[in-house]
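[job 0417] fold request received: F-box domain-containing protein
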Amino acid sequence: MSKFHKDTLFLIFEELQNDPKSLLSCLLVNKLWFETVVPILWKNPWRYAINYGNKNSLFVIITFDLPNDTKEFLSRQGIQLPSTSYKSLSSNYLSFCKSINVEIMNEIISIGSTSIYDQFLLQQEIYSLLIRKCRDMKYLDMISLKHQIFYFPEATCLKSLCELKCDTSIDSSYFYGLARVCRRIQRLIIINKDLKPNHGIVKLIELQENLKYFQWKDNIEDDYFLECPYEKIFFALTKKADTINHLIIFFQFIDGGDHTFFQKILPKFYKLKTLMIGDFVLIKEEQLKTSVYHDLEILNIDYIKIDTAASMVENSGGNIKEILLKYYYYYYYRDNNFHKDSLIFIRKIYENCPLIECLSLLFSSSKEHFAEFAQLLRKCQNLKSLLLIISNIYEKETYEKIMESGEKLLNILIDAAPPNLREIRFFDYFRFSLKNLESFLKNWKGRALSIITSDPIYKGDDYVKLINKYKKLGVIKDFRSDSEKNIYFK
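[job 0417] inference complete; emitting structure tokens
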């Protein structure tokens, strides 16, 4: 019964692993709770949003386990480690640890000394300790790494590494060292800080056996490339197309005219569940229209035409749960196809996406568009979150027309909103009068709703009073006005 009780507690506490305050409180209840919580907290103790540079207790715990000869060596170098009266700690904390975050470790180590040289010595010894104690390493964030930990005698623990976060400024030799040991990385996150390719990362990718998740984000100031930093890495990635399920890319400088390699490789990732392309990346849309991703669940592209998105939805396998598009071309759409394309897009969604939960949608304030939107709401019963963008590019709408469109939208939501809908985001092209908003809120029953808008009108006293009234009644969970860039889903 005691074993059953502890196992049950463990499952409960695991649900709180993102809530450190609650877990820390649970430590104080009794010995059983303490013994159950400690492995959860220490599995990845670097994940929490806290100031690690002030955590002297973590520095004490980590240095406590250093071998005596190491402590004596550091002492001879003039490094004073914290003294403690304890002969042993209440738990073997580091043995539960399955992760190393180099930046956070360096922050904690800096507690011991302000000297750069002393910190270097401490890092060397503490990394060696962690590699020795953390026998089943799963996660490594090696940004800011200055030690080749891969050559420590105990580095075989890195064989079990599942997730790696790194940046391209790290010397290739570090990745060669890692590639000797690690072949089972499933999640690879790369921050690009360099203007030339990192051949060590290329080799590391080539040697992975089950790479599923790949994320690349540019973070460079200069755009003058001596050699394209992308091409070799992404061609190596295509060799893993049979296993890659999630592709997340944020380029700064690539466009469809200058870098044709991206157009060639994108269709190869036929098993994608997530396709996310952020920032200003121009893609040959004809290729996207013909690409088939039967397993696609998340489609998130910042700049894409509506007809291209419609084709991708139609070619999907009916598993899409999120469509988050910024509709860059909407601001420049000047031909007569917009009305037709946007109607087709709405239809493709409710015909091909029965599982859709999160959706950004662009449409006109025409009778046909409102009718198709209502049809979408009735058929997509899993819908939880909506971002609505209304396009009035052919004529300048009057105040009365904008208010009329807002009233139509609210009436459709009252009549057709699916039971799971909990969040609506919209720009100020949709505007609701005080009367229409109150009528809507009176009829919105049974589920607390979050509303996020870019329109400052709702900061007015009458609106604030109305909103607060329905917050107290439990109809509104959150209602805020925010900048346009924050309206888009993160």
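[job 0417] notes: The longest strand covers residues 358-364. The mean pLDDT is 84.
[job 0417] exit 0
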